[in-house]
Every structure is written in C-alpha cells, then in structure tokens.
Input
Amino acid sequence: MRLFVALDIDTAIRERLREFVSDLGAHAPGVRFVGPETFHVTLKFLGETTQIEEIERALAAARGVPFEIAFRGCGFFPGPKSARVFWAGIEAPGELQSLAASIDEATRPLGFPPERGPYKPHLTLARAGSGNPRRNAGDRPEMKFHAIQQYLSGKPAPEFGTMAAHEFFLFESILSPRGATYRKVRHYPLT
Output
C-alpha cells in the first residue's frame, strides 16, 4: 500500500478552495489542478509499504493536542521563478509542528527516515509538469504558472477559513491513470 499521514479539512474550507481553483482554471490551461476531494495537509509521506499494522500501532503512540489551523494566502514551490507546485498557505500554532515531529519520531523505528529540514505545512492546489521531455521553452513547468502569477499579482491574499484540528488520519493513496484517490485507513484523535 502507498500510505501517508495527514489532516483532513472541513467541508466549508474545501468548498472555498474548490471555488478559488475553479476561477483560476481559465487562466492556466496547462496546469494540473488537484481535485478538491483530495485536499489534505500532509504530516508525513510513508510511500509503498507492507507494514500496515506496525504503522497503525506506531501512529497510535504519536501525541498531539487539538489546535486551530487557518488556510490563507497562496504561493509556489520551490519559488515563483521555478514554480512546480502551487499551494494554499497554512497558519497554525506550534502544536502542528509538534504533531508532525511526533509522527516522525513514532515511525522512525519502522525504518521511515525523519523529514529533512523543518516541516513546511501547505495544501497543494496544482502541479505543473508531467515528467515528459520538454518540447520548447514554453513547455517548461514553471512557465505554466506564469498566468496565475500575473492574475494574482496585486490582489489581496485569499482567505479560505479556519478549522479546529482534532484528529489526523492514515491514508492510502491509490494511483490510477486518472490520478490518485485517497482512502482513510484509520483515524487518530488528538487529546
């Protein structure tokens, strides 16, 4: 199974993000927007593994407390000039960082390496590039986001809402030619 650990998001925030992405779609025909049903906040990507029961037990030992998380603003990874991912920003207290670190620590004995560098919470809205060879300079992935950057330039940062995070999930990522779908495997309450 291909697994990851994440926060799910509230329906109202998911809908605001869907509307925002829908409005942008006309400005960026070459960009692969993520379907709103897959919006989530990744805490740790585990990848292909057969250690399902061990992971479920390890995550039960991860600790965290409920916290508020706000979705606002947007940007590009790794940066505007070399953009490959378009994201919605996340503002959260240190409890989000602590939860991600606890999950890292809980899964390390199973052979999952800790994340390199600090945890950078975000919600992926779109990706550029298909992995296919480039045909010309206009096909470069970062160029596909140029129209979105122009459209958003000078506009106020979008506000998508705030929610209480009171649980996290182990998800399975199921790949198909139409893209990935996600299935919740198990939930873990924050106490």
The mean pLDDT is 90.
